[in-house]
Hints:
- This protein is α+β, with helices and mostly antiparallel strands.
- Helix content is 47%, strand content 10%.
- The protein is built from 15 helices and 13 strands.
- It has a six-stranded mixed sheet. Strands 5-13-10 form a three-stranded antiparallel sheet.
- Strand 7 and strand 8 (319-321) form a beta hairpin.
- Helix 5 (126-150) packs across helix 7 and helix 7 (163-173) runs antiparallel to helix 11 (242-273).
- The N and C termini lie far apart (58 Å).
- Protoporphyrin IX containing FE is lined by residues 72, 105-106, 117, 169, 251-252, 255-256, 259-260, 263, 302, 306, 358-360, 364, 366-368, 371-372.
Amino acid sequence: MAAADREQQTDEPSVISYPLKRTSPFEPPAEYACLRANDPVTRVRLVSGDEAWLVTRYHDVKAVLADTRFSADATRAGFPRFRTGFPRLAAGGVKNITRTGGLMFMRLDPPKHDVLRQMVTSEFSTHRMRAFRPWIAQKVEGLVDELIAAGPPADLVSAVALPLPSLVICEMLGVPAEDRAFFEEQGSLLMSAKATQRQSLVALKTLAEYFERLVTEKESAPGPGIIGRLIAERLHTGQLEREDLIATLRLLVIAGHETTASMIGLMFAGLLARPGELALLRAQPDLIPAAIEEMLRHHTMTMMGLPRVATEDLMIGSTLIRAGEGVIASVVAANWDPSVFPDPDRCDFSRRDRQHVAFGFGVHQCLGQMLARIELAVVLETVLRRMPHLALAVPFERLRFREDLLVFGVDELPVAW
Ligand code: HEM
């Protein structure tokens, strides 16, 4: 139903502007509690002008993400656009923007999504990630060595949180570590809700062209790493189109970078703001894995939510969603649903058996979650051990939290030790 038609109806639901603002860095917007209780599937208007349904209850969010009748295909009409002026992608993906036009599998539906995801699933297996942990630990030691050598105060975000995810993905993909700064720059342009349309499109094009060149270079001698393996085992065997290969590489760089970097920053900002928790983890480092799960839930920084579009008429609870209407599954609101997480505002490391949805749910559930957990755990263990007197070097109120990115985060984290 068109927005104009809705306005004609007297029982028309009111439309709220989205995203809602946080009033505190460690709490989701206050309106979510009221929406969950009274209006769990509500109309919102995005900065792009698109309207969509915002879903805020935990079980509804999981139901949407588990139901493939809600499409993740950004080329479909009605797919909610979070950015101003971003063009709706034409069918066929980004061919109008880059010469290699595949869509990333995060924005594809089964069966093609499953085929492409399957090609890289083993790269993120538990076995491979465990084997990778010592390499990650060594890199974190190196970053912390440099931080300590430079002396306090230092910015934990630029010294550790930002470089680590790009070092890791460069190593996994098999691209030169010197290209790290390039990935950081393109990644943050692509994830910034405030980047202009032109900046985002240029970043998309630049990243695609970089991978085009690299794949061409590696075709004659694939070498180690994900790119080499995909070329030798999938591209050369005809199982993978070149444009889908490039799109997958773009996805792996984009998906793992800003998310992990933001979570590392927020994790330390939260712990430094609540010294009791920091002391607890120093005294009982075996609590670290549970603490990380709880911080992922509590800080959920994918604050815009996960966009989908209905492919047929269906119900969420008692609300009818028409085919072609956009839906946003708010993982932030779901992770603070008190019917599943009692006293959700308490960051409680002893919570058990509660499945947060910070990594999403269903077929698109985060492929890199095991890797992200390892990066977070290694950084936390290393910093606690190497910097026993870690403290904020500025009053907490002076920290600047970013709302401009699709993921929430802290700009800088000046610390002393
Ligand atoms: C704390 C860090 C991270 C968080 C909170 C996070 C969160 C998420 C979420 C919520 C989704 C689901 C998107 C949707 O359903 O629309 C997702 C998907 C994805 N993530 Fe992560 N992520 C993190 C780190 C990583 C890392 C390190 C990688 C590794 C490269 C990664 C790779 C991916 C990929 C490839 C997808 C798409 C999966 C698919 O569509 O099948 N993520 N992530």
